[in-house]
Design brief:
By secondary structure, the chain is α/β, with parallel strands linked by helices. The chain has 22 helices and 11 strands. Helix 9 packs across helix 10, helix 10 runs parallel beside helix 11 and helix 10 packs parallel to helix 16. It is extended, with a radius of gyration of 32 Å.
């Protein structure tokens, strides 16, 4: 009998038993390939790379434990029910029985992914660590044109685009409210942002606000990922909003939503919620101070409290009050030094955005660093003629009418100030000037071995603001601690001893010459 002979029917061992190909997994689960792909995406099951590929190198391999994990998933039965239900609807339509088809469509089985979110992310920190791809995907679909279209045989519904836009604005509003934004960079692909939430650095990419050209990719896979990411983003937003005592989901002003000013509407919602919560605390404290309770046991008048909350929901259109972020929800003593630095960068600065600049990005960045901002159009908190405006952001070669009381800058100035954490001079960013190079904050210049000239100029400005002394070119900071070493001066005792030795050498040289 050969050494490696295995009788028929004997249990497999090694990689042949641990790994199965995709076709074997589909046959084992008795599902179609699209359903298997969707189930793997939702459950987080990915192909493996075994040491020895039994069926060849041209197959995708899955671990057998993952396949057994999918076999006992309740979502698998739901997907089977939906598939059989679609067959019933298709059969009714083929028989031209529209009444039966419409009744079946109203009772179509549905499913939720809430249990999958809790299963894949037992802790909230785990969800934050895996939020980079989620945010990039949600922002990508939020930038798509809101129109039903069939791409690659799959329809992108308008409701999905609107939902992604709502989730992305809720996330941006929280980051701007709590001043958690740390870095930003404009690239060809879009605008990169990095925020720090509960100690986790989260980086995502937002497309430019331009007409999107849909490439030829498999949109069925993207929509499956988006289905999971929408649920994950909603859970994260809910947790973050409740952490700062703000109700979720937010109720926005429909007039501002119609004007596409969702971020501004969310900031007003934050203000109204903070005012109502402070008023609620005042009412409860006043009720607790009363020594004698009411005999009938009734609570304080809730109708008056609700009426006051509704009045604060749409505050008056005052120039300085609308974009002011109240600090009641997030107290300053709980903020770290970096958050306080970001919070006060654009403090007491008032910006006005012209119509040609990226409005949504600047409406997110400027309040995140403590500034007040308005724009050109309906629903703006203040007009362009306001004399208290300090900076006007424009992106055109010439400016017709100018106000002498403000600075006219290009949008890059805002992003460079955010990355440098100081207010940069505006001479290089004025209208009609070629701005300096836009440096990426995600690149470590010292590790790369090359420091750009403008980066050195920014470091000198930062040192001047901190009243520090920078070393001379070619020297390090350790030379500043010992300035005598710069001039070639060593320890005094060593210098005296070296002088004595030198004198003795000269005496011996004189004796030898004589």
């Amino acid at each position: 009998m050969p050494k490696h002979y295995r009788p028929a029917g004997k249990k497999k061992e090694g990689n042949a038993a641990k790994y199965v190909t995709r076709s074997q997994a589909v046959k084992y689960l008795q599902v179609s390939l699209p359903v298997f792909r969707k189930l793997c995406i939702l459950k987080g099951v990915f192909p493996r790379e075994p040491k020895k590929k039994v069926k060849g190198n041209h197959h995708s391999y899955y671990h057998m434990k993952d396949i057994l994990f999918l076999k006992h998933e309740p979502l698998l039965e739901k997907l089977r029910d939906i598939r059989s239900y679609d067959r019933k609807v298709k059969k009714a339509m083929s028989k031209k029985n529209r009444d039966l088809a419409e009744r079946l469509l109203t009772r179509k089985p549905t499913y939720t992914l809430d249990m999958l979110i809790k299963e894949r992310y037992p802790k909230f920190v785990d969800a934050l660590r895996d939020l980079d791809d989620c945010l990039s995907m949600v922002h990508l679909f939020a930038a798509l044109p809101a129109a039903d279209r069939v791409v690659d045989g799959e329809k992108i519904p308008v409701s999905r685009v609107h939902n992604c836009r709502r989730l992305s604005h809720e996330w941006l509003a929280y980051i701007s409210r709590t001043h958690k934004l740390r870095k930003t960079f404009i690239s060809v692909k879009g605008i990169y942002y990095q925020a720090e939430v509960e100690g986790q650095k989260i980086t995502w990419l937002t497309p430019h606000a331009l007409q999107q050209v849909l490439p030829e990719v498999d949109y069925r896979v993207l929509l499956t990922f988006l289905e999971f990411y929408e649920t994950l983003q909603a859970f994260v937003n809910y947790k973050l909003y409740h952490s700062i005592n703000v109700k979720y989901p937010p109720i926005l002003d429909p007039r501002l939503e119609a004007l596409a000013a969702d971020l501004y509407a969310l900031s007003r919602y934050f203000d109204a919620n903070a005012q109502s919560s402070s008023m609620t605390k005042a009412v409860t404290s006043a009720g607790s101070d009363q020594t004698e309770p009411q005999e009938d046991g009734t609570k304080p008048d809730e109708s008056e409290l609700r009426l006051a909350q509704l009045q604060h929901q749409l505050p008056s259109n005052e120039p300085g009050a609308l974009m002011h972020l109240v600090g009641d929800s997030v107290r300053e003593d709980e903020d770290d030094l970096e958050t306080l630095e970001c919070k006060n960068l654009f403090k007491n600065l008032k910006f006005f955005l012209s119509r040609e600049v990226p409005r949504e990005s600047l409406l997110f960045i400027i309040p995140a660093f403590g500034g007040t901002v308005s724009w050109e159009g309906e629903g703006a908190p203040f007009e362009e003629t306001d004399q208290s405006i300090t900076h006007q952001v424009v992106d055109r070669p010439t400016q017709g009418h100018k106000f002498l009381s403000r600075e006219y800058i290009q949008p890059q100035w805002v992003y460079d100030c955010v990355n440098a954490r100081i207010i940069l001079p505006t001479e290089k960013y004025m209208v009609g000037c070629v701005p300096p190079p836009h440096l990426s904050p995600f690149v470590d210049n010292e590790a790369e071995g090359h420091v750009p000239e403008y980066a050195e100029a920014i470091e000198r400005l930062k040192a001047a603001e901190r009243k520090e002394v920078l070393p001379l070119p070619g020297m390090g900071k350790e030379d500043l601690d010992d300035p005598h070493s710069i001039l070639g001066i060593i320890d005094r005792a060593e210098a005296i001893e070296a002088a004595k030795k030198k004198q003795k050498v000269y005496i011996l040289m004189d004796i030898t010459y004589i």
